């Protein structure tokens, strides 16, 4: 508990600015978990491969019962097909098992990320193995794909992967670029429509105030990433929900190997509660909408995480376990709270 409170106070981006916001920060610091006590959360974009077991524990303690891990860039370029293969395998294998060991249901999306689409020789090889993984259990979409530098190669592989999604009847999780975001977002949507993809099957991610209206108007899902120390803090997220309501809007952490906050979804829910957003609207943007969007894959069964998952850390995955020598496995059949 104390750890969470410290994190909030060390994270001024969520509460920077006015005296009123500072007051909110103090309130949240004192009562953060009280505001979200009985709430459940679904984080539709989080890269757990890069996170620790402490993060898993913090997530389940805060009520995050299910997550989606999109395939993405690892921070340095991959040099061969085998590392893509092993990475995709870990998303549907080891990482899913690791998540289950902390009582969290793990799904993933599989795709060639925009950055590595620029290595055309390798990208062509990756395209050939994508269908092997897209049809596996627990794969809820093609993602995260789209534009980074908005190059011709990125466009080519975005288009090819949209066709794969169409064929597999899977939702598409679109990463929008950090530079020239407005242009990249519009282009991503136009291309999806050109390929005859139903906008209701496309989740446009990393939105901001400049992009949200057009995304919603055209019938796409609008996802928002709450990054610490950037423009899209959760104070602004509250304002977006006040202005646009909760239809087709969802919040995620996109936590990865960079500076990010895996608890962004429950923290934003707490802030929304304090700011007078209704429980139903909070539930939609931090839980239900993500489920509705990605359940179109046919791969999400709410019963798997609606009630607390059984935790049995004596289980093994291919002979490997999350435990280290001498640790006693936690076998917890009843409680969602791990102490
Ligand atoms: Zn991501």
TrEMBL record:
The keyword Magnesium appears for this protein: no
UniProt KW Acetylation keyword: no
Record keywords: Hydrolase
Matching InterPro entries: Metal_Hydrolase (IPR032466), TatD-like (IPR001130), UCP005295 (IPR012022)
GO MF term list: hydrolase activity
SUPFAM superfamilies xref list: Metallo-dependent hydrolases
Protein's UniProt name: TatD family hydrolase
Organism: Emticicia soli
